Every structure is written in C-alpha cells, then in structure tokens.
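Subject: for your reference before the review

Hello V.,

The reviewers asked for a structural picture of the protein, and I figured it would be easier to keep everything in one thread rather than splitting it across files. Below is the amino acid sequence we used in the manuscript, unchanged from the supplementary table.
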Amino acid sequence: MSTYLIGDIHGCYEELRALLAQVNFDPATDTLWLTGDLVARGPASLDVLRYVRSLGPAVRMVLGNHDLHLLAVYAGISRNKPKDRITPLLEAEDADELINWLRRQPVLQVDEEKRLVMAHAGITPQWDLATAQLCAREVEAVLSSDSYPLFLDAMYGDMPNNWLPELSGLARLRFSTNALTRMRYCFPNGQLDMICKDMPEHAPAPLKPWFALPNPVAEQGYAIIFGHWASLEGRGAPEGIYALDTGCCWGGELTLLRWEDKAYFTQPSNRQHDMAETEAPKAS
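And here is what came back from the structure prediction:
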C-alpha cells in the first residue's frame, strides 16, 4: 500500500498513465493524491477526467484554478479559450456527469495520520489549519449546491486580498478561492499579491513566495503539498513543503512523489519527444 502524490496533469493523459505504470499503481491498494488542474492546455482533458473519476475512492484530489475555470465555461459564465483545448470535453456525451462530479471535489485535503495537507496553490500564512478547513468547507459547500453558478460568476477578481475573520458572503468565498487555488506571493504581513508571476529571484520587494513566510500549518507539524507554480520546477520550497507542478503541459515533466520513502519519479512530456523528432535530422 503506497501513497502517490502527483503534480498538475493539465490534460496530459498519456504521461499520467505512463508515470503510474512506472510505480505499478494499483487502485485496489494504493492511494493517489492529485494537486489539481487536471484539465486545460494539454491534449486530453476529457480522458484525464474520465480516468480519474473511474478510480473512485483511490483518489484524493483538490480542485485547481483551471478546474474551476472549466466549471465556469461549462456554466456559460466564462469564454472557452482555444488554448485551453477543452472543447472535446465540453462536447462529450458524458460532460454533464463529469462536470457535476468535478464540482463536488474538495479544494483541501487533510490526512491526520500522515500529517499531510494538500491545496492546489498552498496555504496562506494568514490561516491555521482550522481556519483553512473552515474556509475550504464553505467553498466546497457552495460548489456542490444548486447556486454554484452564482459563486463561479463572482469568484473572478483579486480583492479582498487580506484575511479577516469577519469577511462574509461572496467576498469571503473569493478570498478563500484565491488563497487555495491562485496564490503565489504574499506581502510580509501575509496579504496576498495576485499580480506577480515572476520567479522568486525576480519578484519585486517586499513580495515573498507564500511558503517563504512563517506558516502556521507547517508549524503545526503538517507537510504541505501544492502544485500550481510550474516555473518553480519543483524547487525552492523549504523542508516539509513540496512543490509538485513541473510543467508537463509546457514541455517539462509530470512528477510523482511516493510518500512512504520520499522517492520521486518523473515522466517527460510527450512534447519533448515531439520536439526532438521535429528537430532531429531526417534520414536520407
């Protein structure tokens, strides 16, 4: 029985299956944790959703910002961008089933026995674990309710960017969604910056990656797993915080961490193979 954690898949179905084959993943005995952003940008978002859904209780996943955007597109709230490559999913005969399954997935995973916490973007330094769990449950409740289109319509925006317990309504839900699915940088007081996407060495002062600030959840003895930030290439986070998005859909790799022995496995993007074939000299 093994626990496998995989970074953002982004529609890279073939790479996902190849990576799981490397470790002989068995859904009857193993558990698969997924950091979110199952869909968009890669070639096979439909296949990814069908496969992950078929694994049933073997999967513990969280929603990412691209997953939420898919829900908004399907609800007619946001525009279907060609670069997301999700049209086959939107037009699939089982699209309704997949979308309704997806919107009922969590935005936070906590395993008390393993002392593991997973969110797509991470955990804001302004939250302890109890607050993170409360805010996640609120987002999950509205996503699984009949009023979820109202939330999806209101989730876009960068404000409020500072946590206050008295936040309420859609403003509170928007902050929680940004913290769990979009966050990268914070000001020294923990306030979110939703603009900067540069590498940490190029970020303007006084911004710092969220994981570079004291984090109450980490201080409570939990390991934190996150994806979302492909340009980190899995590096730069302190001990006990694991960045697993290594940009498979951009030509990087899909990365898996086996929790029991902290062994890493990677599967190169098929784009690397395609580019190599394109650049290779043709035989005469």
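For the response letter, the relevant points are probably these. Residues 276 and 282 are 12 Å apart (CA to CA). The chain has one domain: 3-279.

Happy to draft the paragraph if you're swamped.

O.
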